[in-house]
Fold this sequence. Notes:
2 domains, 6-stranded mixed beta sheet, 6 helices
Amino acid sequence: MATQNELKRLAAQKATQWVPEGEYIGVGTGSTVQFFIEALAQSGKQIKGAVSTSHGTSEALKRFGIPEILLSEVHGLSVYVDGADEVNHLLQMIKGGGGALLNEKIVASAAEQFICIADESKYVARLGRFPLPVEVIPNARSLVARQMVKLGGQPDLRLNFTSDNGHQILDVSGLLIDEPIKMEDTINAIPGVVDNGLFAHRPADLLVLARQGGVEILRAQV
Length: 222
Ligand code: 5RP
């Protein structure tokens, strides 16, 4: 039986086939993405450069000799590749377990195609078992936490953590996320919230899902 890391690596390797040569791509954050960066370097594919979403990803790009470019220096990205904490049949996701959700949402929005890479444990019938990361302005932390309780959640401040953009994260468990787009909007309308880890407005276009039986390619089932 393959381990979770072996499945992550398989999904990451498979995803390199959607990387176009000679273009700029966006790269997310997390352990699956680390496997992807390694696989991309080993594939020998030549891209013009990659937009990074975190310090960790930038370090990996450098380690594998993949040129980094700033989002402000490109007009758009053909492909964005990233992992997820949960993904449903509409390819809506919860992200932000690694704390990079804000940069991830920004860079993903610039891409024509979002490719999600994941092992089978991430594929869920309903989003919400994984605590939803909500990035907040530190001053507004308690205010936002009280609003999250009103929405039915239990917020926990992520300890000893500051995002790359200088914010804090509340990990909110217990939310009933029957309507992910509505929940994404409701939370983002609370003053002091910078963004939340629901990627429902901008779901993935393709899910490369590594299962024990092999790698599956899924598109949104509407
Ligand atoms: C980081 C993320 C990651 O994509 C998510 O946490 C999945 O991580 P991993 O690939 O390590 O399981 O959203 O902010």
